[in-house]
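ok, trying the design again with the full structure, not the truncated one.
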């Protein structure tokens, strides 16, 4: 397989373990969180602020609903995962697969060849799909803010009632 490389340096192993550790942490956090009923805003349970795009424009940014999507997926709510961010389940699945391949590669002596033409084309295609979906969703999702986000935006003077 061209996308697998047997040329592994010590720095590759560190990168692979870091990637797997990031996936493990994201998965553990997703299992800890509870999906927000609005389909976005789950990240606020971690003390993070609401999305600036929602506060300023009352529309979703490209990442809106991603934490909720992944959390829904991890809690077995497939429909909720796709509803929160349609690309979310695909990204989490790809993240999971690549993290597991990376972890196995540390012990078996291989890595994903990120310089491979197929890997690069797939990454570009995924980015195009992600941003196309995001632009479409931004344009078709007016009044995206929850009641609390609307009140916060009004309080901050970002929008009028």
């Amino acid at each position: 397989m061209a996308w697998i490389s047997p040329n592994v340096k010590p720095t590759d192993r560190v990168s692979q373990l870091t990637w797997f550790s990031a996936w493990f942490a994201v998965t553990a956090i997703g299992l800890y969180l509870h999906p927000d009923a609005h389909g976005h805003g789950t990240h606020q349970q971690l003390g993070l602020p609401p999305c600036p795009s929602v506060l300023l424009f009352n529309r979703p940014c490209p990442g809106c609903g991603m934490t909720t999507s992944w959390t829904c997926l991890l809690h077995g709510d497939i429909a909720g995962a796709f509803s929160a961010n349609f690309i979310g389940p695909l990204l989490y699945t790809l993240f999971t697969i690549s993290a597991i391949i990376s972890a196995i590669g540390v012990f078996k002596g291989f890595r994903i060849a990120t310089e491979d033409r197929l890997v690069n084309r797939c990454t570009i295609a995924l980015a195009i799909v992600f941003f196309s979906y995001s632009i479409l969703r931004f344009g078709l999702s007016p009044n995206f803010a929850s009641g609390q986000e609307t009140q916060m935006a009004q309080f901050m003077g970002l929008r009028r009632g």
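Keeping the full-length input from now on. Residues 117-140 form the longest helix (24 residues).
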